[in-house]
Amino acid sequence: MLKIVVEQYDSVEPLGLYIHVPFCLKKCQYCDFISYPYSKAAADTYLNALFSEIELYSRGLPGWDKALASIFFGGGTPTCLPSKILTSILDRLFKVFSLLPGCEVTVEANPGTVDRQALTELRKGGVNRLSLGVQAFQGHLLGILGRIHTAAEVIETVRAARMAGFENLNLDFIFGIPGQTMEDWLETLSLAANLEPEHISVYALQLEEDTPLLQLVLQGEVQRCSEELELSLYQTAIQYLSEHGYVHYEISNFSRPGRESAHNLGYWLNRYYLGLGPGAHSYLQCGRYANDSTLDGYAVRLARGELPVSAKEVATVASEMSETMFLGLRLTSGVDLEAFYRRFGRRAEDVYRLEIMRLLKKGLVEFAGGCLRLTSVGLPLANEVFIEFV
C-alpha cells in the first residue's frame, strides 16, 4: 500500500499538509463532516493511529515531498484535544517534514474551547494562525445552528488569542441561516470588522442531507432563507468588507493585503497536498486518495502497518486541467492562463474554447490581466460556471 505515494514523482513543489481531528464536543445542526463525540479513549486510539500514519509517510515519501508550505489542523474541532497533544503532533511532524520559511500553521478552534493558557501553548508550539468558527453573533441564530458558544465568548477568545501572541487570525461566518435578517448580518459584519482579524470567511449555509437542520426545514419548524435574501447578504458582505480594508480574493474569503490563507490557496491553485487522519484526502502526483472515514477502520489498517487508504483515483492530464480551471476560477483574480500553459503545455483558451465562448456570451467570465476570471454577474453563479469544466 505504501507504494502508492512514492512512484514516479517529478515535481519539487512543496506540499500542503492537512490533519483531520475528528472530534467535537457537540455536533452542529448543519454539519455533515466526519466527526465523533470526544472521549479520552477515542482520542488515544486516534493519536496512536495518527503517529503510525506519520511514521509510514516518513519512510515512504521522497525527500522533496517532505517540504511543507502549510499545515492545517481541521475537524471536527481540533481544540477538543488538549493543546499539549496538538503540539505533540506538531513535534512529530517537525521531525519528519521540513517547513519552508514562513510556513503557515493553522489550527481551527471554536470560541469557548480554548483559553489564554491553551492558546499560549499552541503559539509556543509552532501554531502561527488561528481560525475561529464564529458563524454568527446573535443568540437565536447560534441556537438554530447548534453552536455552543456565545458572542461574549467570541470576543474573549479573540482577546486571549492576541494576548497569546497570535498575529494572524481568521473568523468564519455563515449567511443564509433560517431566520437571519439583513439587520442581523450587518451587525455581524460590523462586530467582525471591529475585532480586526486579518482574515474573514463568509459561507452560504448548505442544507446537507441527514442533518438535523435540514429536517427542521423539511418539517416546517424553521424557514429556509430565500435565494433573493441570500444573494443580498452575500453582496452586502462583499461591499461592507471591501469598504473596511479587506481584499475579496476568493468567492468566500477576504483578507488584509498579504494575509490570504496560504493553505487554502494551495487547494485553489490545484497544488499537491497530503491529508492525515480519518476521512482525510490527499492529492499527489500519482493520484487522489481518501482515507478510511471511520475511526476504527482507520486505526485497524494502521495497526496492520498499512496506509489507511480506502479509495484512490489515478490523476490524468484531463482531470488536472479540469480541476485547475474550476478551482482557479474560485479566485477573484481567476485562472492565470500563462501558468496553465507552463503546467500543461496547452492553452486553456484552446482546450476549453467552446466552454469559454458560452460563458463569455452569458457575461459570466471575462479576460483580464492575463487571466480568465468570474465577472460580478458570474460570482454568485459560480457553480454554473464550474460545471462547464467538469
Explain how this protein is built.
The protein has 390 residues and is of the alpha/beta class. It has 2 domains: 2-268, TIM Barrel (Alpha-Beta Barrel); 317-389, Orthogonal Bundle (Arc Repressor Mutant, subunit A), CATH 1.10.10.920. Helices cover 40% and strands 22% of the residues. The chain is built from 15 helices and 17 strands. The strands form 4 sheets. The chain has a 9-stranded mixed sheet, with helices on both faces. The protein has a 3-stranded antiparallel sheet with strand order 12-13-14, with no helix packed on it. A 3-stranded antiparallel sheet has the order 15-17-16. Helix 1 (40-60) packs parallel to helix 2 (83-96) and helix 6 (182-194) packs parallel to helix 8 (227-243). The longest helix is centred in the first third of the chain and has 21 residues, at 40-60. The radius of gyration is 21 Å and the shape is globular.
Task: Summarize the model shown.
The chain is 40% helix and 22% strand. The protein has helices at 40-60, 83-96, 116-124, 139-145, 151-163, 182-194, 212-218, 227-243, 262-268, 295-303, 317-328, 337-344, 348-351, 353-362, 382-386; strands spanning 15-21, 23-24, 36-37, 67-75, 98-109, 129-135, 169-175, 199-204, 247-250, 253-255, 273-276, 281-284, 287-291, 309-313, 335-336, 365-368, 371-374.
